[in-house]
Automatic annotation (TrEMBL):
GO terms for biological process: apoptotic process. One of its GO terms (molecular function) is ADP binding. SUPFAM superfamilies: P-loop containing nucleoside triphosphate hydrolases. This is APAF factor. Residues 75-177 form the NB-ARC domain. It comes from Erpornis zantholeuca. Pfam families: NB-ARC (PF00931).
Length: 180
């Protein structure tokens, strides 16, 4: 509790929601009176915080939604944003790595919820893919789906038949059509 009290109001609210959703309703009831109200004067509510335009872009790109239990980690999110901003107009990649379950997906998705970042650096939207450990058949399916999403307006209609063909097609797409 002492750690939560050093955080912002959203951390307290997230802790309350975690208790509620994980079967600790009695404890959640004890904390219910202390839940901070969400003021409408905030620039953004951490519970929502996005315009419908941003929500649409992220949804279309397959970016994961915020989890029910969400605790802000602004320093880490800002670090990812800075790396994305450093790409500027040059093509490149930002790789987020770490142990399983440490929050890579949540942090990266949160960084993409910045409307200015989306407007300036991802004007065509984003395409989110989770790879993880895959067998060859699963990897081929993911690569085929990504090719289909990226070639939506292309005359190429046949899906790649193997991983090498999919890699080559994606390499060309990334270089020619989606350098950023």
């Amino acid at each position: 509790i002492n750690i939560i009290l050093t955080k912002d109001n959203n951390s307290y609210r997230s802790f309350y929601n975690a208790l509620l959703h994980e079967g600790y309703r009695d404890l959640a009831a004890l904390l219910q009176d202390g839940i901070p109200a969400i003021s409408s004067g905030n620039r953004k509510s951490s519970m929502d915080g996005m315009t419908s335009h941003v929500k649409t872009i992220l949804c279309e790109g397959g970016v994961p939604q915020r989890p029910v239990v969400f605790v802000t980690r602004p320093k880490l999110v800002d670090a990812i944003k800075k790396k994305l901003y450093c790409l500027g107009s040059d093509p490149g990649w930002v790789t987020v790595y770490g142990m399983a379950g440490c929050g890579k997906t949540v942090l990266t998705a949160e960084a993409l919820r910045d409307p200015q970042l989306l407007e300036d650096y991802f004007p065509g939207g984003v395409h989110w893919i989770s790879v993880g450990k895959q067998d060859k058949a699963g990897l081929l399916i993911k690569l085929q789906n990504l090719c289909s999403r990226l070639e939506h307006d292309s005359t190429v209609s046949q899906r790649p038949l193997n991983i090498e063909e999919a890699k080559d097609r994606l390499r060309l797409l990334m270089l020619r059509k989606y350098p950023r």
